[in-house]
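Hello forum,

I keep getting stuck at the same step: I have a sequence, I want structure tokens, and every attempt I make locally crashes halfway through. Rather than fight my setup again tonight, could one of you with a working pipeline run this one for me? It's a single chain of 181 residues.
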Amino acid sequence: MRARWWWLVVALTILGLMEHYLMYLLWGGVNAAALWTGWRAGWPRRAWLSWFGAQAAIGAAAGLWILSAYKVIAGHPSPWSLVAPIDVLRRTLIVTTLGMTAPAALALWLTLPSAVLMLIGLWPRGRAKTFVGTLAILCGAPLALLMVGSLNRPMFTERYVIFLAPLLMLLVARGIETIGR
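Reply #2:
Ran it on my machine without issues. Output:
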């Protein structure tokens, strides 16, 4: 990305973080993927400095926002529930493949083919190792952040992970492509 556009990335990310706390999961996933991609691609020092500078500005603005809005954020009643990590994965798989209205009795069995294809899609081969690693991090980092955040206060609900659907479908497509070879 050209240096003149970093300000736009910073501004849009800050606005997103001020809008909804789901954005913190997205920000964490994108940053984890950027670290992976930058390391694999051998970013030059200037790119690393630009990236870290942008993240520092975003983090400072987010910190100020949290300090000023903490009473409103902390007092929010919610339908969150305490969920075991394996259930987070199961419920995420169901909601991203079948949707939120899937019949509970059949949901796990109906998602099994997609889960197998996602696992096959995660198998790194050839030049796609960086792509697969980036996809895995983009999907895994928000879930890991959600699980870690739930240790203090339960905060899992399916609608917070539905944004992972396009990324997981890319893994399904990669699995189908891998089988086709």
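The first helix runs from residue 6 to 19. If your local run keeps crashing, start a new thread with the error log.
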